[in-house]
Design brief:
Distance between the termini: 24 Å
Helix content: 55-70%
Largest sheet: none
Number of helices: 3
Strand content: under 5%
Length: about 80
Amino acid sequence: MNATEKKTIDKMIHIYCHAKHGTRHDLCTACTELNEYAQKRLSKCVYGDKKPTCQKCPVHCYAPSMKVRIKEVMHYAGPRMLFK
């Protein structure tokens, strides 16, 4: 799996957790769980290094509850990635 994709989602979750949960270096329990889940799903992606963006992907790898959480993180952290 593409290491850049994993690094990007990790950074997004850290940005989100810092802003929404007041963490500094480590993630809160809920965000740690989400990050581990996302990393695991990325590792098992059927597209490998040719993975499209989540929005354009025909395969939905996240469970519905996790999909809601990851969308919230991406919506918040995505625009802020430019400044980090």
